[in-house]
Amino acid sequence: MLGIQKIQLSRKPPPLSGQPKRLKDVELGFPIVYGTISFWLGKKASEYNSHKWTVYVRGATNEDLSVIVKRVVFQLHPSFNNPTRIVESPPFEISETGWGEFEIAISLFFHSDVCDKQLDLYHQLKLYPDEESGPQSTKKPVVIETYDEVVFSEPSEAFFLRVQNHPAAIIPRLPAGLNLPPPGPPEPVLEKKRGDTKDHPLGQWFMNFSEADELLKLAAARQQVTIITDFVCF
Amino acid sequence: MDAKDILGIPKSFPASQEKKARPQKEPQRKPDGISREVYALTGGMAPLMPTIEVSHLKRKAVVDKEKITWQWLPFTNSARRDNLQLYHWVRVVNGVPPTGDYQFAKYNKSVDIVKYTDEEYEKYLTDPMWTKEETDQLFDMCERFDLRFIVIADRFPSPRAVEELKNRYYSVSRALLITRAPSAADVAGHPLVKEPYSMTHEMERKRALSAVLSRTKQQELRDSEILSEAKRIMESRKASKGVESADLLDDHNDIEMTEKVTHTDSPSPSSNIQPTSTAAPSAPLTESATTPASLRMLRVYLRTHVLDQMVQAAISNAGPRTIKRVEQTLSDLGVHIKPKVPTKAVCAEHLELRKEILTLFNLQKQLQNKEIEASATRETFAEPPGTPKRPYRGDTDRPFVPEAAGFGGERMGKRDHKRKVPGRFIDAQSSPPQSKRPRKLKASD
């Protein structure tokens, strides 16, 4: 896919010092899931600590996000001690106890070769289940997750090369004419803590996001609309 | 007799009493100066205090200083050259008649006309169009009539236009002024010298004025139209000039930016969106980036945010009702308003679906409008009012229901009522196609 194409890159002015070379018309997508899981404490619940909850950001397929994410900052409700929680290494999550629901601001900071701008996400912490779910149980948590994709447009070449084979990334078909150096030898696996969430203790509660389902529905819907439109404009 | 006596005596008794009483009261009642009834208002008594001080009343102004009389006296008018004596009433004060000129003499003003000698005429003032005689006559008349050229023109022996006369007079005066002046500078400020009379200009001006006055209404309208048209063209020309210069500027900036950021020049859409690349605000919150070209400017963004913006852009010219209908349609079709798994493919499909729904609604609306138009024109052709169009349609529609059954054809009955606002998408789509069929049948009848 990368190809050893000797075709010259499109005429771009040579990069000025300090500016990385960028790949035009390429965008890298990183599917992420962020959300909260909240357990009712049952007998152990007190007035101010009725629930134990965790807010986190993970790769959608539970891959390691630290390939792009340098740190994540969770901004909690001011009533918490140190409401600004910084997490420098995966897994990017914060666990807390509390009684109230509020909006958590999650800021993703990326590595310097990835992007120098942060990305902000917002998530409403939900502790109490909906009416129809029945009474609270300590065994079944309230899980709210949101799927989204972080897209980097015109990534720098270095960044691209670094992640092109990473499972967390969605690499598109590269436009023709892109002349990339061949991939070097794979990085030696360092003995650092695993960053992926495949064996996460809360993993059993993670939701599955299948795009196939949604695509099917959308395709069916579009078909219906097309039929009706044709009907109208005969 | 006894009765009389009885009656008489008592009659006379009170009568006599009355008579006594009345004369007694009479002097009491009758006051001086005011009538009896009015006096009665005061309670039958004179007021204790006099209400009006007689001394406070105005006295007639005492003319103690002067003694004015009016006399019929003769007078002379200095404005007259003959010694005509006329008479008028004069207010004489203490026997002294007023002095001073006749009070209206001061209004006898005249214009100073330049006078030229014959030599001056020979030297400076000859003109092929004018004989000396005529010029003299002209000047004489000018003096007589105080430069009232219209009168002069009327009385002038040979038929000359007013402008010609004016021209002659002013040019003569001007020439005289200049020649008589000790130096040119002195006279340079004189209006005659500064702005000489131009006969052609004057004639043109008067002609134009009369043309303007005599324009018909139609002409006026046409003229104003043409003027506004010209104005628009001028403005559009100016605007295009301005845009060109602005474009040039933008291109310059763009080139600078791209050199800094090592971007190739992107064509004009992105020229408007320049400064975001190094700015602090994080990507999803930047409002300016909506076009694909400018998406490249953002280094990082969330797909959902982009989708939202695209959706907004697509909906931008639709009203809130349409937006609701679109969302209702989406949920009817089993699609989430915001996709749960927003991958690239899903987002693209979602956007396309929304656009298709919008197109569908637009078509339906157009169809409805055309139908309304068509039915309106049909009605104006004086079809009998009782024409059962609706029931007609209803009859012929039933055979078509099975075809449209998949879309909830049971709502057909309510279709007519819900013509204007088809709240249900299913409802809306069934009515237009159905109604077209009967029309076709009708035409073929």
Provide an overview of this structure.
- The complex is a heterodimer of chains A (234) and B (445).
- With 234 residues, chain A is α+β, with helices and mostly antiparallel strands.
- Chain A has helices at residues 157-163, 211-232; strands spanning 27-40, 51-59, 69-75, 84-87, 92-98, 103-110, 119-124, 142-153.
- In chain A, a hairpin with an 8-residue loop joins strand 6 (103-110) and strand 7.
- With 445 residues, chain B is mainly alpha-helical.
- Chain B has a two-stranded antiparallel ribbon.
- Residues 13-27, 257-290 and 388-445 of chain B have low confidence and may be disordered.
- Chain B has 17 helices and three strands.
- The longest helix of chain B has 45 residues, at 217-261.
- Chain B has helices at 2-29, 36-41, 118-125, 132-144, 149-155, 162-180, 184-188, 191-194, 199-213, 217-261, 292-295, 303-315, 320-332, 344-380, 389-397, 401-404, 425-444, and strands spanning 68-75, 86-93, 300-302.
- In chain B, helix 13 packs across helix 14.
- At the A-B interface, strand 7, strand 8 and helix 2 of A face helix 10, strand 3, helix 12, helix 14 and helix 17 of B.
- Strand 8 (142-153) of chain A pairs antiparallel with strand 3 of chain B, so a sheet runs across the interface.
